[in-house]
Automatic annotation (TrEMBL):
One of its GO terms (cellular component) is external side of plasma membrane. It comes from the Eukaryota. The keyword Phosphoprotein applies. This is C-X-C chemokine receptor type 2. The lineage of its organism: Eukaryota, Metazoa, Chordata, Craniata, Vertebrata. Receptor for interleukin-8 which is a powerful neutrophil chemotactic factor. Binding of IL-8 to the receptor causes activation of neutrophils. This response is mediated via a G-protein that activates a phosphatidylinositol-calcium second messenger system. Binds to IL-8 with high affinity. Also binds with high affinity to CXCL3, GRO/MGSA and NAP-2. The chain crosses the membrane at residues 51-76, 88-107, 132-154, 166-185, 222-243, 255-273, 305-321. It is found in: Cell membrane. It comes from Podarcis lilfordi.
Amino acid sequence: MANSVVISDLDFLDYYLDGNYSDVYGTFDPNSIAAAASPCGINVTPDVFKYLVAFIYGLTCLLSLVGNSLVVLVIAYNKGNRSATDVYLLNLAIADLLFALSLPFWAVDRVHEWIFGTPMCKILSLLREVNFYSGILLLACISVDRYLAIVYATRAVTQKRSWVKFVCVGIWLFSFLFSLPGIIFRVAYLPSHFYKCVCYENIEGNQTPEIRVKLRILPQTFGFFLPLIIMLFCYGVTVHRLYQTNNSQRKKAMKVILAVMLVFLVCWLPYNISLLLDTLMRSGAIGETCDLRNSIDAALSGTEILGFAHSCINPIIYAFIGQKFRNNFLKILVTRGIISKEALTRFRRGSSFSSTSGITSTTL
């Protein structure tokens, strides 16, 4: 196979011993002779599970492409009425769209093997990791924006488009930088006497486990846990202040934002906890046993699926909870002549919808 690195059977045995090779940072270490000599048993993934995961990836891809395209359409259509939150949500939808394009490739990888070579391995891994880091950073920025707008009522500051654009550019750059370690070392591995090819990091040398742990610490700390702390603080104070007032419009908007944040945490926090446990195990902070290693590998594999599924969920939240999103989408359909104005009026009758986004957004 072109653009592939051949590794020995002894090295490839470690792939089986460590289990899950397809997670973002992973536990598979193809250069670990010690791991290959481990007495741990081999865990073989049932074919039915492989096809189930591939089906989930395919369904997620379809829902993500449709849903996030609608989000981009609604926000782009309301160009002159966008808030800072809208700009962040637009970038979040774009990140999910880009990631969704990679899901069919990962589905094939799960069922069969990696057949796309090293260049695609690097590109698709980049899309996956940039999606994750940009997601958490954008949600952290939304939490800060809501904190300033509601707690300090600094609408003039939070609505400045130039600052928002610079922040978004910075988020994309930081997401790319956080993703670099994995991308630099990722290649397509082809075992010398085995038909399965994998897309994984190629880190050579005796200090491979230590290097892999170091490559995890910085991105995980600054790309997940620090933004998480910022989000929890900002939303904690904001919700406390918000429910001391009687502004129902703000409360409805905050319900959507909080739902977006909570879903992100439900989807990605389990994976990051599993990754943290794996990092502690590999650094020697906690003792490594066969049962622990197999449990962590299974956790990484399962929680990764949950994280991948996140890319299609935000549009569903907007559609079911975000009243403004539904109304603005229907306005687009009226403008294009797809539905009548009377249908829009009937839909909006009895609702508290307001055309002024004010301190909320045209999406929420």
